[in-house]
């Protein structure tokens, strides 16, 4: 079978000593940074990206994927132990996880999150391996008009599934697209919006924006809140292993969460976020068995289901990136940036021209998940120690790592000036209630969208109807329109708002 | 008409202003036509789109909900000034600013400056504590970034090494 053959190739690449070490280091580093409160996967990856510059492309991507899983895992640890979601997708884990920790059952909660994530990761990896090749074949049929429409669907989907105000998210996307256009236009060679600053002719680096907006903006906002209300459960983590009864209860929840997450993760936008919310809602709707703790008071299913869903979702969100070259969320947008730095143009051609990289990455995803569970559960004591470090020592270190990361991207302190500017802008966004994730998506897609639009209209000689007369493109646009209409329907609009303010 | 959402009103204003500025700036470049897009075409269209979205957001900020809600609240000037200041000081000291005649002081000095300045972002910072933290971080960064990862940094002040 082709699937087995491909996976064998992938494991052959991933199971070299060197790549295993990189996966391990990635997982460890990712957890290390991700466990720090208030730092989600996006700033973690942005901060650690420079570490991978010197590596060969395959190793770099394997390590980055490891960082991503590590950061996610670290985020759920923080959610359970500190009542602080490290990222939006572990918001629901907080509800029951923290209650379990308060009752002295932090160990089983962490184990449930870990085991659920591992199972979901295995399924997610298989889903990618099975669905990526046929999707790639479809993608190879795409012309510029289809790509442009696909990006529209991706961007619209991203805002529809995200939380918060729809129109503000749309505006943030457009703003991101515009920021993405700063720099030299590939077609005419004209330097746009560069104000005669030589560094700006290369464009604004996505690392600068990710670090400024997600890193500094968050730190400033964290510092402006009094931080003494946090309560860390440190001494109370005793037994890690869940009881047999815990296992019996969480198992179906893990299966349901995984199925939901794998399906929703492929969708653009907040795949992981949405699937975590949906999984929790479903668990809440199912009947409580006799003797089971109610939801909101420390039910293990309330941890296992959303954690499996969000891990399955974050796994399958690699599908649009690897097959179409289109990042479905902010983390994948960073991955595109990382691939470009290593001279890989993400898209359908990666699988055919670079099979070792493609399948090696997929195999390493599974290995990364395995490492997390094998290493992090025993190491949990160490991560907990890290949580007891006071924020007044942590934040100067975070600022330092951001600054070093930004500088080492280009070895140029112009980027440091820029990151200060975007730190201010990021804080402004938070103050004005504008979610920054869509901005990052727009930033990455901006130049691509312009290029595809230009080519599509060049071929059609300026006739805009090309987007609706080509069947594939027309149906993609119809999907985008449908998504918008559905969200704007009054009844659904209300439901959507409710779904995201559950606590 | 009373303002219902301060956040929405000012974010709308920001989007309109930035969109307008991009569209205005795009006129500097050749706009061209759909079949032959100039470098100004896409930014011009997007700028206008952003300005329109901003205006809609502003308009809606008067109607959505009871007046006076959703306030922006006070700006956290203290953390902002010290965090961003620490970052700028790091950049300036690490590689120097030739335009201002500032020589490169290197990584170690820059780390001390960053940590000490950043720690003042919180009230009640202690200089002694941040100096200890800076020492730990300086050693850690030297080992991790310079020794192990071999990233290219000026480590010591330029006037001492040559």
Automatic annotation (TrEMBL), chain A:
Question: Which Pfam family, any one of them, does this sequence belong to?
Answer: TctA
Query: Does the keyword field hold Chaperone?
Result: no
Q: Provide this UniProt record's keywords sorted from A to Z.
A: Membrane, Transmembrane, Transmembrane helix
User: Which InterPro entries does the record cross-reference, listed alphabetically?
Assistant: DUF112_TM
List all membrane-crossing ranges. Answer: 20-39, 51-71, 110-132, 144-162, 203-220, 258-282, 357-379, 391-408, 473-492
Q: Where is the DUF112 domain?
A: 20-441
User: What name has this protein been given in UniProt?
Assistant: Tripartite tricarboxylate transporter permease
């Amino acid at each position: 079978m082709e699937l087995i053959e491909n996976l064998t190739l992938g494991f052959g690449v991933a199971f070299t000593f060197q790549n295993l070490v990189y996966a391990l280091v990635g997982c460890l580093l990712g957890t290390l940074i991700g466990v720090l409160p208030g730092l989600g996967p996006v700033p973690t990856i942005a901060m650690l990206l420079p570490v991978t510059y010197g590596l060969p492309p395959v190793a770099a991507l394997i390590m980055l994927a490891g960082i991503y899983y590590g950061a996610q895992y670290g985020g759920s640890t923080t959610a359970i132990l500190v009542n602080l979601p490290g990222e939006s997708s572990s918001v629901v884990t907080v509800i029951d996880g923290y209650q379990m920790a308060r009752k002295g059952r932090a160990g089983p909660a962490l184990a449930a999150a870990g085991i659920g994530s591992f199972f979901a990761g295995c399924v997610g990896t298989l889903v990618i391996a099975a669905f990526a090749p046929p999707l790639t074949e479809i993608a190879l049929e795409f012309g510029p008009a289809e790509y442009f429409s696909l990006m529209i669907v991706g961007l619209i989907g991203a805002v529809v599934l995200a939380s918060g105000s729809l129109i503000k998210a749309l505006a943030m996307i457009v703003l991101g697209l515009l920021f993405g256009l700063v720099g030299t236009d590939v077609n005419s060679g004209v330097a746009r919006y560069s104000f005669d600053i030589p560094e700006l002719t290369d464009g604004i680096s996505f690392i600068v924006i990710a670090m400024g907006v997600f890193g500094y903006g968050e730190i400033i906002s964290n510092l402006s809140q009094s931080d003494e209300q946090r309560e860390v459960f440190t001494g109370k983590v005793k037994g890690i292993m869940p009881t047999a009864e815990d296992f019996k209860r969480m198992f179906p929840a893990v299966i349901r969460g995984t199925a939901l997450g794998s399906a929703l993760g492929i969708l653009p936008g907040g795949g992981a976020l949405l699937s975590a919310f949906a999984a929790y809602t479903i668990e809440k709707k199912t009947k409580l068995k006799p003797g089971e703790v109610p939801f909101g008071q420390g039910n293990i299913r309330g941890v296992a289901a959303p954690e499996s869903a969000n891990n399955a979702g974050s796994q399958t969100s690699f599908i649009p990136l690897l097959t179409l070259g289109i990042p479905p969320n902010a983390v994948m947008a960073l991955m595109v940036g990382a691939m470009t730095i290593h001279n890989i143009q993400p898209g359908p051609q990666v699988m055919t021209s670079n099979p070792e990289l493609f399948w090696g990455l997929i195999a390493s995803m599974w290995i990364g998940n395995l490492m997390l569970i094998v290493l992090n559960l025993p190491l949990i004591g160490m991560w907990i120690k890290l949580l007891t470090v006071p924020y007044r020592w942590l934040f100067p270190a975070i600022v330092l790592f951001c600054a070093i990361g930004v500088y080492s991207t280009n070895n140029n302190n112009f980027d440091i000036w820029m990151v200060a500017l975007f730190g201010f802008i990021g804080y402004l966004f938070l103050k004005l209630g504008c979610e920054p994730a869509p901005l990052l998506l727009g930033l990455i897609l901006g130049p691509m969208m312009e290029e595809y639009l230009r080519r599509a209209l060049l071929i059609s000689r300026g006739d805009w109807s090309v987007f609706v007369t080509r069947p594939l493109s027309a149906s993609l646009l119809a999907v985008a329109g449908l998504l918008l209409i559905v969200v704007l329907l009054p009844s659904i609009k209300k439901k959507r708002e409710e779904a995201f303010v559950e606590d | 008409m009373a303002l219902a959402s301060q956040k929405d009103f000012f974010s709308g204003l920001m989007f309109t202003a930035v969109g307008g500025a991009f569209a205005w700036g795009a006129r500097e470049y050749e706009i061209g036509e759909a079949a032959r897009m100039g470098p100004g075409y896409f930014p011009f269209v997007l700028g206008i789109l952003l300005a329109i979205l901003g205006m809609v957001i502003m308009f809606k900020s008067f109607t959505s909900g009871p007046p006076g809600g959703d306030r922006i609240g006070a700006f956290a000037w203290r953390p902002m000034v010290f965090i961003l200041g620490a970052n700028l000081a790091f950049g300036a000291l690490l590689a120097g600013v030739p335009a201002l005649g500032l020589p490169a002081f290197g990584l170690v000095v820059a780390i001390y400056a960053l940590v000490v300045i950043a720690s003042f972002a919180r009230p009640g910072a202690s200089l002694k504590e941040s100096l200890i933290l800076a020492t730990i971080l300086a050693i850690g960064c030297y080992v991790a970034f310079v020794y192990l990862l071999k990233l290219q940094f000026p480590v010591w002040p330029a006037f001492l090494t040559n």
